[in-house]
Amino acid sequence: MHKAKIRLAYRIVIDSSSAFLWDKYVWEDTFKEYLMQNQQFNSKENPKNTFRELLTENEKAVQLHYLVGIAANSYVEQLKGNLHRVTDVLGNNYFPFSNFQLDIINTDITDISKHKIGITFYSPLLTLIDIMEGNYLISKNIEELNGLETLMFPMQPHLSICYCQKNITDNL
After folding, report:
1. Strand partners, 137
2. Strand, coil or helix: what is 29?
3. What is the DSSP letter of 169?
4. Which of 92, 70, 89, 161 is nearest to 123 (CA)?
5. Average pLDDT, the chain
6. Exposed/middle/buried for 45, CB within 10 Å: 0-12, 13-18, 19+?
């Protein structure tokens, strides 16, 4: 019955056109953090305005993904492990996540409107029971039991299985 243990990932992209208030706060604070942190990687003699240019010039600037991500920590903590943008098919349960990763898509120290980031939220380990009618049938319980409480999350853009471990007994 249990196909695999999986992790789901859901990615949101935040830029100047983001409509959610939460996104706007994250967008503004991560830009401010980028302005501070990029100074340690940018050349004083020949400064680069965009993140992509800076990466080309200094490969250590890849650390900015993590350093800027720290500015989003308190906002992510406010979500208390549930991403409310993704609901199950009944609209009752939210996408559970246990960690996240921020990446800078691009930004420009001279123009905040060009600041664009992605945040990928990762679920805890889940049991994938089946895929039915375009929905992931999952359980938060990963132990082998006779019955499981289940949730169904619709397949949708930006939601993906990012880790899969098949059950060994399925191969016998």
Report:
1. 130, 152
2. helix
3. G
4. 161
5. 93
6. exposed
β-sheet bridge partners, residue 135: 132, 154
Cβ burial, residue 88 (10 Å; 0-12/13-18/19+): middle
Query: What is the distance between the alpha carbons of residues 136 and 17, in angstroms, rounded to a whole number?
Result: 30
Q: Per the confidence metrics, is the pTM higher than 0.85?
A: yes
Instruction: List all residues 6 or more positions away from 147 whose beta carbon is below 8 Å from its beta carbon.
Output: none
Enumerate the β-bridge partners of residue 128. 4, 138
Residue with tokens 């039915």: 132
What whole-number distance in Å separates Cα of residue 43 and Cα of residue 39? 8
Q: Do the bridges between strand 116-122 and strand 126-132 make them parallel or antiparallel, or are there none, so unpaired?
A: unpaired
Rounded to whole angstroms, the Cα distance separating 29 from 11 reads 19
Tens digits of per-residue pLDDT, 10-49?
Answer: 999 999 999 999 999 999 999 999 999 999 999 999 999 9
Q: Please give the full DSSP string across 51-79, using - where no structure is assigned.
A: HHHHHHH-GGGGGHHHHHHGGGHHHHHHT
**Rounded CA gap, 27 and 13, in Å?**
10
- Determine the Cα angle at 126 with ends 121 and 132, to 5°: 100
